[in-house]
Amino acid sequence: MGCGTSVPEFDENEGHYTKVSKPNPWAYTKPITRTELMKMRDEFWDTAPHYGGHKEIWDALRAAAEAELSLAQSIVDSAGIIVASADMTTCYDERGAKYELPKYVLSEPTNLIHDD
């Protein structure tokens, strides 16, 4: 997601986060190029609807993952997505379907290398 910062707000009554935030820094298992990262992202989004849930929610999650935080928040809110982890790695739709997103679709790893 984008470069902005946000403090996640947890709603104790509802048991989920009300604000999305940028994922914590992470590293892929080995150094990875931008081309490899984009290929992994494309493969994930192409196959995501097969993991269950609803295509329109997967589409909204992709749009949110690729947007700046403020826009991502608006997308999540308007799609009725329940954010179980502030970094959007675990979400639910209003019907209770679970959506798990790998960090590589939400942010770049710390060991990203330039393509040669």
Quick summary of this structure?
The protein is of the alpha+beta class and 116 residues long. Helix content is 30%, strand content 14%.
Ordered list of secondary-structure elements with their pairings:
Elements: E1 10-11, E2 16-17, E3 32-33, H1 34-47, H2 55-65, H3 69-78, E4 82-83, E5 90-92, E6 98-100, E7 112-113
Parallel strand pairs: 3-7
Antiparallel strand pairs: 1-2, 4-5, 5-6
Helix pairs in contact: 2-3
The third-level CATH topology is Bacteriocin As-48, Chain A
Shape: globular
The level-1 CATH class: Mainly Alpha
Query: What low-confidence regions span 5 or more consecutive residues with pLDDT below 50?
Result: 1-8
Radius of gyration: 14 Å
Strand content: 5-15%
Described by strand count, sense and barrel closure, the largest sheet is: 3 strands, antiparallel
Overall number of strands: 7
| Superfamily (CATH H level) name | Ub domain-containing protein, DC-UbP/UBTD2, N-terminal domain
Q: What's the end-to-end separation, in Å?
A: 25 Å
**Main structural class:** alpha+beta
How many alpha or pi helices? 3
Q: Helix and strand string, N-terminal first? A: EEEHHHEEEE
CATH architecture classification: Up-down Bundle
Tally of domains: 1
